[in-house]
Amino acid sequence: MSSNPDLHSQLKELIPEQQERLKKLKSEHGKVQLGNITVDMVLGGMRGMTGLLWETSLLDAEEGIRFRNLSIPECQKKLPAAKPGGEPLPEGLLWLLLTGKVPNKEQVDALSKELRSRATVPDHVYKAIDALPVSAHPMTQFAMGVMALQVQSEFQKAYEKGIHKSKYWEPTYEDSLSLIAQLPIVAAYVYRRIYKNGQVIPKDDSLDYGGNFAHMLGFDSPDMQELMRLYVTIHTDHEGGNVSAHTGHLVASALSDPYLSFAAALNGLAGPLHGLANQEVLLWIKSVVEECGENITTDQLKDYVWKTLNSGKVVPGFGHGVLRNTDPRYLCQREFALKHLPDDPLFQLVSKLFEVVPPILTELGKVKNPWPNVDAHSGVLLNHYGLTEARYYTVLFGVSRSIGICSQLIWDRALGLPLERPKSVTMEWLENYCKKSA
Ligand SMILES: CC(C)(COP(=O)(O)OP(=O)(O)OC[C@H]1O[C@@H](n2cnc3c(N)ncnc32)[C@H](O)[C@@H]1OP(=O)(O)O)[C@@H](O)C(=O)NCCC(=O)NCCS
């Protein structure tokens, strides 16, 4: 089975054994307690409350993300690359997330080819985007494009025809692969429409997923293509509880198709405490340079950080809802910068922030994680290669996130996961409950 180059056939083989596994877990351990729910958890955004099944990745607060048990450095080592020793191909990560197995080059090439064969976007999608003012936020235009793609949903058609529930995963797979294949085209269209007078660059079928995405945006340098492969790979998935992943999963639990579910996820990603932070980081770094120049001293930088905090704002790119250490997605981007652009002044500023910000956030006394996250780094890399439009950055994150969210959605349907419906309570209910249990 491991050498079969067809992803769909591999999944077909894997699904029955995973269904059995879930059934056994339910029947043998269904009543095992996973912890206590406290009032703090209910009031605190459900932090620390284990409540979701998410197969594709798992986050450790100290170590960071593992994609199907592989850390980011392990993925960089084991997943096929476009060139020897190069960054992993995102298609390889898609395969890994879906199957739990590291693909060989032939399997990844077959998947690249399949994605290319699905990469045609109907005209009405461009028209839907064109109906918005060019000044609309890139994420709004992107989400609009995804909604317009929904018209082609195979899941919706199959459901209307009365498909048996044991087969739900098949049209979900079809929709997911088509969506993943078409997103770079929609995303590049939004970029070229807003920033390049609408001059669209056609796809290049000789390129892989990440390389072609960079090409359609207008960047053909081999280093930018490598950056895009790395970028798309590391932003795919971050277990299930983050806003975009959870939203996608929640909406899909109502049997909304992958397009509807992913469009909802994108709207969550567009929030400044989540995906929009990458935009905020570069804008903030540029504001530092504007005010203090590129050769800012450590003391000036400290003052600027305090000024940001004292004006009631967060320092973008630092902190995390779950992580309690430097994000490995930050570290691999730092490695990339050290290899390809060590002298870039903005990279040097990012390095200085790595030294200056954590002690200040620690001094505040309330920040649970003073360390940098993924968003603290991505902007300066993109900026270095000429993708300077920070407002667009979250769209890149969105393209990548489709790979994680859709992989899990396929498993949601394959495993027959139910409608999500947690219990909510009022403050009055909590007060009465606490009085009774005192
Ligand atoms: C990511 C983030 C939303 C996590 O939120 P969280 O889980 O509530 O974080 P904490 O529990 O550490 O927050 C405790 C307090 O510290 C503050 N804090 C956390 N990170 C901070 C930061 N980078 N700068 C300033 N204050 C911060 C919070 O705003 C909160 O303050 P409050 O009690 O006055 O409301 C938060 O760290 C943040 O806003 N970071 C900046 C935005 C960002 O980089 N987002 C991308 C995440 S990948």
UniProtKB/TrEMBL annotation:
Active site: H274, H320, D375
GO cellular component: mitochondrial matrix
Xref: InterPro entries: Citrate_synth-like_lrg_a-sub, Citrate_synth-like_sm_a-sub, Citrate_synthase, Citrate_synthase_AS, Citrate_synthase_euk, Citrate_synthase_sf
GO biological process, one term: carbohydrate metabolic process
Entry superkingdom: Eukaryota
GO molecular function: acyltransferase activity, acyl groups converted into alkyl on transfer
Keywords, in A-Z order: Transferase
PROSITE patterns: CITRATE_SYNTHASE
UniProt key word Cell inner membrane: no
Family: Belongs to the citrate synthase family.
PANTHER family recorded: CITRATE SYNTHASE, CITRATE SYNTHASE, MITOCHONDRIAL
Name of this chain's protein: Citrate synthase
Species of origin: Camellia sinensis
Taxonomic lineage: Eukaryota, Viridiplantae, Streptophyta, Embryophyta, Tracheophyta
